[in-house]
Amino acid sequence: MKKKSKRYKNLIKSVNKEKKLELKEIIDLVKKNSTTKFDESIDVSLRINLKQSKGGDLSLRTTVKLPNGSGKKNKIAVLCESDKIEESKKSGADIVGSDDLLEKISSGKFDFSKLICTPGMMSKIGKHGKVLGPKGLMPNPKLGTVTKDVAKTVNDIKTGLVEIRNDKDGNLASTIGRKSFSSEKILENYKHFIDSIKKEKPDTIKGEFIKNIFITSTMGISYKVGAK
Known about the structure:
This protein is an alpha/beta fold. 29% of the residues lie in helices and 21% in strands. The strands form three sheets. It has a four-stranded antiparallel β-sheet with strand order 7-1-8-9, covered by helices on one side. The protein has a three-stranded parallel β-sheet with strand order 4-3-5. The longest helix has 16 residues, at 183-198.
């Protein structure tokens, strides 16, 4: 069994489970409890209702553009035709390539956290799904990572576009800021994130769509948000 650190045990002792906290208070506490030396991420995790009245369980996969960004540094690669390489390099991407990038992907020797692909290269990237899929890197038109407008997509990702998907139990999570962010900016990101998820509720889902919500930091403890 993994031992909890003295720092973590002290954080647990500071929690008053009997006291109901307002959202702003929770965010302030999460920031206060981010006591490590690095800039911890502030994360929201929630569970959604997957059961539809008709058909199978809901699978939610979408993107949310946070108004104040996520604070996460993404290393972006662009896969494009050889005659579009120079144009794509101007987009601000960290890596740009064509067949040479495909070779790196095929060998498993690549270092990026997001992959953007032009429509014309999709036929070539398909066979690499077994490598990219498990890492969450396979380009997807629904998520905007298959696009003709490379510059816009690169800018969106660098300025706060986050990808959302639920697991089989309906859990999903996202970073909504860093401890260096002001509480006001985190609060604005949080509200925008939750509102965006609520808008994804299909008509075939009855009752509350969001079952529970928690906010935490990378190395901190989680707090349940009362109001949905």
